[in-house]
């Protein structure tokens, strides 16, 4: 049996899965927590990775490994490869002003969409570099190289200390604002525009490129951004739109062309196979359910039962779920709000239902945006921690207007990394096709009222 390792270094934790390269069978696994916050020193990721590897039984017997990770995080290194300051993560919104300035300086969102397929918001790496240059000039002066969380972890696993040997992949590079998925090239002019000078950037590898080697000599795959890895891990096909409900909410699909959306709603990322990955991202997803459960004093199972006991549309109660600002729409300073609160709707069931509907409405808006930019959408593949809620599974088809498939709970980002590692280890022209348990299927009559109420309430925010 040829074994491969897939690693998912997410916002909240590190997961390691060891799988059979040919069948995908899970052999063993491990995990470790990450610290909370929007600013984390990369050493914490490294410590968690070592703990997760140990729990998974080590990597000595694997034929290849690959790392997927949270996107956009700004990891800045000095000329000796030392971390200059803690990484600013994707969900850190302090660079919102920098994003607005960059849009203006290049001449508008359409210029950015044409250049790199995405429009600046606070999530992206270049906006954080601009913030660093303006607000921490002494730290900025020390920076010789910039990379992303998965790049840095792959480099650490390789044992190298030379910043010129850091490698990345198309999917993660496409979320920096200074690399174009359409041309497969860096845009050093945009990096210089954002930071004020050029920096060492990782070499961008193809789908089966070698980013280094483990101590046992096994190759390290190019890795991936978490969403691209999740798509690869689910085995989603043409027309399968993946909706992932985790710390963030994401709606994405593999496509032949970049969407080039000047509004910035749809970002034109790359996938792990050489295609594109148009995606819509919200900051508020599963944690909306966490917050509702905390407010009501119930666990997730109880929250789900409460939500399903209330009518569709929650009798007009609408939750706008911008609990930590929002990325799509670009409202970094927004807060959550309740609309339609009456004596009739002032009970736990209505609030539970509104929390589920509000979170899903934001994602359904993302689906609409993908379709408007030409994406094929035949069915929804629902994954992530939020997909474990029965209420989420049953309400989703009412809002999306499409059949909803829910695969068995799994570590789909880590699985996507493992599948990439298998592709590298086996040396095949196409990635291996792994068997999987059949998904649960949910269908329901669309309920337009829910989204109409949501849109009316959201429009009050301007």
Automatic annotation (TrEMBL):
**Which EC class is the enzyme in?**
transferase
Q: Which residues form the Carbohydrate kinase FGGY N-terminal domain?
A: 4-232
The protein's matches in InterPro entries, at most eight in alphabetical order, are given as: ATPase_NBD, Carb_kinase_FGGY, Carb_kinase_FGGY_CS, FGGY_C, FGGY_Carb_Kinase, FGGY_N, Xylulokinase
Q: Where is the Carbohydrate kinase FGGY C-terminal domain?
A: 242-423
UniProt: substrate binding residues? 71-72
One Pfam family this sequence matches: FGGY_N
Q: Where is this site: Important for activity?
A: 8
Q: Which reaction does it catalyse?
A: D-xylulose + ATP = D-xylulose 5-phosphate + ADP + H(+)
The Enzyme Commission number assigned here is 2.7.1.17
PANTHER family the UniProt entry points to: SUGAR KINASE, XYLULOSE KINASE
Native species: Paractinoplanes durhamensis
Which UniProt keyword terms apply here?
A: ATP-binding, Carbohydrate metabolism, Kinase, Nucleotide-binding, Transferase, Xylose metabolism
| Protein name as it appears in the record | Xylulose kinase
Instruction: Describe the task this protein carries out.
Output: Catalyzes the phosphorylation of D-xylulose to D-xylulose 5-phosphate.
Q: Which PROSITE patterns match?
A: FGGY_KINASES_1, FGGY_KINASES_2
